[in-house]
Every structure is written in C-alpha cells, then in structure tokens.
Specification:
This protein has five helices and three strands. By secondary structure, the chain is an alpha+beta fold. A three-stranded mixed β-sheet has the order 1-2-3. The protein is globular and about 45 Å long.
Amino acid sequence: RYPVIKLSLKSAKQPDFYTAFMKLRDEIVYEFSRHDYLLNSEALSKSELEEYESLIRGGYEWEKRRRGFRKNGEEATEFAKEVGRYSTALLLLSKCLKSPAGKCLVRRLLRADGGFHPLALRVRPQDK
C-alpha cells in the first residue's frame, strides 16, 4: 500500500570507508532497481529519470571509469564525487515514491541487531 525503502546498514561494517561505501552503494542501487517500475511512470521529470537511470547503473559505470584512471589522485577525486552522488540518492528515491495524496511514506532501516527501525516521512502539501 505504501512504498517502502529498505536499507540494511549491516553491509557497511567493513574495514575501510571505501569498501563500506561500495557496499552501501550496492544496497542503494538494489532499492532503485527494486522500484524500477518508476522508470515507466510519469512520476519522474526528465532530469529525475536521467539521474534515476544513472544511479541504477552506478556499479557498472564506476568500474568502467575506474579502469581509466591514470593515477591514484584521480581515483580519489572521482570517488569523492561518487560519494556525493549517492549521499543524496535516497532523497531522490523518496521524492519519486512519495504519494500524490500526501500520505505517509515509510522508510525502514534494518538495525545492526537485525530488527527494523521504521521512520515516517510526512509529505507536506507544498512539497508536491
């Protein structure tokens, strides 16, 4: 009835930030893929559709770009951009999933202990 974004933070428990981010990015990409029906709806503007498609292809595009890096500094710069892109990805997904009737969008975060922590995001009329 309500769209749900499920995100497990268990995968973020990694020895370094790079690996933790890549695991979280995979979780985010999975959620975008799970809601890929939005790609065929009229809920997304042209720019949102392009960003949505780009985020779904994230892992593939990153590996493709990564092979072309000439030096380590170049990879660090591009990695920072990648972190920036995915730091706002859930905001885009939430916006795309929000109910046109202003109903509550429910986001559920999987806690480290395996339980769910529900968060409610109320959609205000001016946000429509």
